[in-house]
Write a structure and sequence with these properties.
heterodimer; A: three-stranded mixed sheet; two-stranded antiparallel ribbon; about 5% strand; B: alpha+beta; two-stranded antiparallel sheet; 7 strands; extended
Chain lengths: ~280, ~170
């Protein structure tokens, strides 16, 4: 009896290798713990970009790029210039105007940013455009979508992504699941605090890039006055806090902190020239 | 000159006049200043909900007309009357883009292509080739810097805002 007890104690002291103690598989448990650790670990930058590319492809499947090369190039220059003023200047930033009449803008992990032509048509200057792009860029900088996807998907899927076993080319069903979780977010929206943070960062990034920092609030003010029953704003209203609340928060934050950038240009003439001459 | 271009110019020419009629109101007690500066002379104190006509925006300031008086108020003390943006943001691009005129009065209809609806976002047909095509428009560091210099944009260091109360 005593000898048997000693054997058990010794066995437990051994390294944990496939030891079956009364049906409890230690090795399996250890693997599970590892998986959870991986799921919580940061998704690497290449993996973030791959996931974002999948989500961006999804968006482009729903609304194609507007066929206006000069405008697309212009948008990419404004966007990249702002991105250069951030903590992630050199991820493969990609901007695009979507051929869609709804008023909206989207960001995907890894540096993908899209604006609808419906929103473009309500913007009055390059500084306003910069404000919108800077808001979306901020979502990418803070990885808001990535965090939301993490929160809402099964940990095995993210562990697979973190393991880099997912290859998008082959249409891996696990990547597809993550991508659809990512695109569904656009129908559901991010946390309100993420939106407020992107507003707060967006006005600063516009100022850093040399623009009038009031471009973003000007766009929000324009949109605030559109009839809320207007169907072109339906998704925006569903997925974002109210414009009035966002403007009230910006009002409290921007002045006097950003007053000294009041005189920066809005480049409304360059904006009109590109939009008017782009066809 | 194509009809489209002609229409665009007509709309652009008409814009300032139409802008002048943009109705707005102040959302809190606000001082009407002689110039768009914090320490400019105060012309008048406007109580909350005073109606004004918007003339132009200059960064954080908006020039308004109140009765016969013209002056400047902080842009974020204003709210445009519903429907004002229907005119305010119509720089002619909506005609060009074939985007419906919305926001006029009570009846606003959106026509044109139905796009990124909730339904569509839940049933996607990804288009990786389109993403490849989009790549050709990406801007390099040098390209972006040259573009900024052309516009007279100068980068500066600005700290992120902390964000206090919600």
């Amino acid at each position: 009896m005593r000898r048997w007890f000693l054997m058990v104690v010794l066995a437990q002291a051994l390294p944990v290798v496939a030891f079956d103690l009364g049906g409890f598989d230690l090795e399996k448990a250890a693997r599970a713990v590892q998986k959870v650790q991986k799921a919580n670990a940061d998704v690497s930058e290449p993996q973030e970009i791959e996931l974002g590319g999948g989500i961006a492809s999804g968006l482009l499947g729903a609304a194609p790029l507007l066929d206006n090369p000069p405008l697309q190039r212009y948008l990419n220059r404004v966007g990249r210039w702002i991105a250069l003023q951030t903590e992630r200047p050199d991820i493969p930033w990609q901007f695009g105007v979507l051929d869609d009449s709804d008023i909206n803008a989207f960001a995907a992990p890894g540096g993908y940013v899209f604006v609808t032509k419906g929103l473009m048509a309500r913007i009055n200057s390059e500084a306003e455009l910069a404000g919108v792009l800077a808001h979306e860029i901020s979502h990418v900088l803070r990885k808001h979508h990535l965090q939301a996807i993490k929160k809402n998907t099964r940990s095995e899927l993210l562990a697979a992504l973190a393991d880099d076993v997912i290859k998008s080319q082959g249409g891996d069903p696990r990547l597809n699941k993550l991508v659809s979780a990512g695109t569904e977010l656009y129908a559901r929206g991010l946390d309100k605090d993420d939106e407020y943070e992107a507003d707060r960062m967006g006005v600063v990034l516009a100022a850093r890039a040399g623009y009038d920092p009031y471009g973003l609030p000007a766009v929000l003010q324009t949109l605030e006055s559109i009839n809320p029953n207007d169907s072109s704003l339906a998704l925006m209203f569903k997925t974002h806090p109210s414009f009035t609340l966002r403007l009230a928060l910006l009002q409290g934050e921007m002045s006097p902190a950003l007053d000294m950038y009041d005189g920066q240009p809005d480049l409304s003439k360059r904006f009109s020239a590109v939009l008017g001459g782009g066809r | 000159m194509s009809m489209q271009t002609f229409m665009m110019w007509m709309l652009m020419l008409c814009t300032p006049a139409v802008w002048a009629s943009d109705a707005a109101f102040v959302i809190r007690d606000t001082e009407l200043m002689e110039r768009p500066y914090r320490d400019a002379r105060v012309l008048e104190s406007l109580p909350a909900r005073s109606k004004v006509a918007v003339l132009q925006r200059l960064s954080g300031w908006t020039e308004v007309q109140v009765g016969k008086q013209r002056g400047w108020v902080k842009m974020l003390s204003l709210q445009l009357e519903p429907g004002a943006a229907g005119r305010r943001a119509d720089n002619g691009l909506r005609t060009l883009f074939n985007v419906a005129q919305t926001g006029h009065g009570s009846a606003s209809i959106t026509t044109g292509i139905r796009g990124l609806s909730e339904e569509q976002l839940r049933n996607l047909h990804p288009d990786p080739q389109a993403l490849q095509r989009a790549r050709q428009y990406a801007a390099s560091r040098e390209d972006a810097a040259r573009f900024a210099a052309d516009g007279g944009l100068k980068a500066s260091k600005v700290d992120y805002l902390q964000g206090g109360k919600k």
